[in-house]
Structure formats: C-alpha cells, structure tokens
Write a structure and sequence with these properties.
Helices cover 18% and strands 31% of the residues. It is of the alpha+beta class and 438 residues long. The longest helix has 28 residues, at 108-135.
C-alpha cells in the first residue's frame, strides 16, 4: 500500500483570497474524505524527523473532524476520527497542504450515505461471524501420523520453485526426500523476518486493500507490517539526499524503493519505486518492477556499511546503508530528474541481471489497475508494461493484460489468476515475447 498521493493537484481557479478563506472550511463535527493515501500521525507533528506515523490511511477514508491546527507554514493539521475500515473509531492527525489539498469536505447527503455504508459493513461482519461460528467445530479428523506426513509434503511443495516441479513431473524418479527434510526446518510464518531468505509461504495474495504501518528497524531500513494482521509484508529504503542521486535534502524530495510481498505470497512480489522531485504530489512518478522466476521472497540484511537485498529470483542488489544509493549487484542507478512539465522522469534504475523483469511507469499514479475517468467511471489503466530479458528484444504489452482491480477486495490490484505462478507466467511470456522465464 502506497503512502504517496495518486491524485492530481486541484486547479486554483478561484481568486487567491477566496481560496485561502475556504481552504480550511472544516469545522469540528463535520465529515471529511481523503482523496489520496496519507500518513496518519499520533500527534500534530509533520516533519521528516517526527517518528509519529501510526498508520497509512487509504484513499476514500472518511472521518469526523475532531480538531484543527494551523502550522507555521500556513498549512493545517486535521485530527479526524475514522468512521470505517480497519481503523474505525481511531483518531489520527493528517496534513492539509493548501497547494495540494488532498482532503475534501463531504456534504450532508454523502455523510448519510456513509452512515448507511457503515451499517452495511457491520451487518456483513455479523453475518461473517455467524458463518465462522457455524463451521468452527466441523473439522475433519486425521490421525497425528497422517497429519504430520501431509503437513510436511505440503510445505515441501511450497519450497519447490516451478522449474524444479516441472523437472520432477518430467522425471518422477528424480524425486527424493530432500525437499521434505528441508521443509521441516523452514522458518515458521509467524516467526518470519525480512532478513530471512525463504520461499513464499503462499502462492496467491488474497487480502483486501488495507493500510501498512512502516517503522524504522534497528538495522536502518523501514519495516512494513499489515495494520490488520501485524504480519511483515515489505520493507523500504529511502534516499533523502543530498547525494548524486537525490540532489537536495528537503522534505518530500526523495527516491523510495519499496519491496512488497503481500500475504507472504509468490503471486504479487514486486518493487515499487517512487521519485518525488518536489513537494507537488502529481509530479511524483511511480515504477513497478517484478523479477522472475519468483523463487524466494525479497529479503534484506546489513553487511558492514551496506544493505544487501535479495530479489525474488535470488539475484542481489547492494546499497550504501547510509545514503541508500545503489552501489552494486544487478541494478545500476542514475540521478532523479524532472522533465519540462516538472514531473519526475521514470526512475533511472536499470536491471542488468540474467532473469526476466516486468516494468511499468506512470506519473502521478500507480501504473496498473483501474483509473477513474472524468465521468467517474472506472477503466483499466492505459499504461504499457515492458518485459525484458538479457539477449532479447524488449517486449511491450498493455499493463491491463497482467494486473486487474478486484472490487470485492476493496479495490486492491492483483496479478491475473493465470499469471500467479511461474508456469502460467512462463506460458504468457513465451506467447507474447518469444522467450522463457528460465
């Protein structure tokens, strides 16, 4: 889940005096809605050094205004009580920037609609609880010995990458007990840390859209956990400058590399890069990268003055632990740059490894999933994804052929079901591009 905004700046068509007078027409008791993903803070401190980010609230989050505070910059902090979702009933401070207003006041009609929706959510929760209650005691009995064998075999299959599985199908006699032995020593899911290089625990990510809580770890990177389950689902490296990649050391100006693996699953492991060249949200550019074959979950560890990141295809990228600049491995890195329209150019991160990479870029929004048209309708993103492999010509296809938006899961974006495993993805890449993942 991105904490950056995905909306364009609102046009300042009103006279300046009128705009400023109405910019904070939010009174205590009124209802507001977030028009972008925003950091939710425990108190009204919004500087980079403030270690008070309690959650990330998603676009569309609604809440009641509890308090407002004018900041020295002329912008405002708004304390809101969340009225739905995972953080229902909790109160947070969010930042209201006069230049880029990402919070809107809801009228009475919308407020009533939201109350009705909350009732629907509550009714759904009750019905779900009843279903769980009815099925809780309907467990199939298995002898302990039988269960142990099944559990070991299931875990072993998870540990096998798709290439190894294909080899076993082609030559059954090659199967031995080694995978089962290694399966018994795997790190349990509830003890997993992002420093562990392990195979994915699940094949497909299924969680609804939710907030992530990211905090600086003892080793220096940002560790991200699901706000719903508390499970680790990614880590981030921020380059805040000043250095040869990010020239200025100013708030909102940075390159962020977010390694994500929702549900600890193979299907949606990705790197999300955001280049923010100034304090205008719509000038940020986002890049999605996926690496194949997907053998392990992304991992990070500190080695002296470096961070060593393992990609899903087991290749390594090395970073300066202090500046977060790429210094080796299968990435090369260029400086963050802006075009004539002030928007950041796609991040100058080049992949030099021997695997397959899928990449898509877009300014002001994520380059995949549905977008909202001017009429308010939803339509698939028109961005193009590039599939590349060393020694072959780059292959370009519509992003909508890979990703889709699932409105039954809160509008979360997933890889299409036929591409969630590497066998399906390999068939897809062969047909579209003429080369294999392997």
């Amino acid at each position: 889940m991105m904490k950056k905004s995905f909306t364009n700046c609102l046009s300042l068509t009103l006279p300046l005096a009128l705009t400023l007078a109405s910019a904070l027409a939010f009174n205590v008791g009124e209802q507001v809605e977030l028009e972008a993903f925003l950091n939710a803070r425990s108190d009204a401190r919004f500087t980079k050094a403030s270690n008070n980010i309690a959650a990330t609230l998603s676009k569309g989050t609604r809440g009641e205004v509890m308090e407002t505070k004018k900041m020295p910059s002329g912008n405002f902090g708004i304390k809101m009580k969340v009225e739905g979702g995972a953080h229902r009933g909790e109160s947070f401070w969010v930042y209201y920037n006069l230049k880029t207003p990402l919070i809107k006041l809801l009228d009475a009609k919308n407020k009533e609609l939201n109350k009705d929706q909350n009732k629907v959510d509550e009714n759904d929760a009750v019905e779900t609880a009843k279903k769980v209650e009815l099925t809780a005691d309907q467990k199939a009995y298995r002898a302990p010995e039988e269960k142990a064998v099944i559990d070991a075999a299931t875990t072993a299959l998870k540990l096998l990458d798709n290439k190894a599985l294909l080899q076993i199908i082609a030559n059954p006699k090659s199967l031995d007990c080694a995978p089962v032995v290694s399966a018994l020593s795997v790190v349990p899911e509830d003890q997993y840390k992002e420093t562990d290089v392990v195979q994915p625990y699940h094949e497909v990510a299924t969680s609804p859209l939710h907030s992530s809580i990211c905090q600086t770890s003892d080793s220096g990177w940002e560790q991200c956990k699901s706000a719903d389950t508390g499970k680790i689902e990614g880590f981030k490296l921020f380059n805040n400058g000043p250095n040869k990649i990010v020239k200025n050391n100013e708030y909102f100006i940075n390159r962020e590399m977010s390694f994500e693996f929702s549900d600890l699953a193979r299907s949606d492991m990705k790197l999300v890069i955001s280049d923010s060249p100034d304090d205008t949200t719509s000038h940020a550019t986002y890049s999605i990268m996926m690496f194949f074959p997907r053998t392990v979950m992304p991992a990070v560890k500190r080695v002296g003055d470096e961070f060593e990141v393992t990609l899903p295809n087991k290749e390594i990228v090395r970073y300066n632990a202090k500046t977060r600049e790429v210094i080796g491995g299968v990435f090369t890195e260029g400086a963050m740059a802006q075009g004539d329209n002030k928007k950041a150019k796609p991040a100058a991160i080049n992949y030099t490894g021997n695997g397959v990479m899928i990449r898509a870029d877009k300014s002001g929004d994520l380059p995949y999933g549905d977008v909202e048209t001017k009429s308010g309708a939803k339509a698939p993103s028109t961005t193009t994804a590039t599939i590349s492999k060393k020694g072959f010509k780059d292959c370009k296809i519509p992003s909508k052929d890979i990703w889709y938006t699932d409105y039954n899961k809160g509008g979360n974006v997933f890889v299409k079901s036929e591409l969630t495993n590497d066998i399906g993805m390999d068939d897809f890449v062969k047909k579209k591009c003429g080369f294999s993942l392997y």
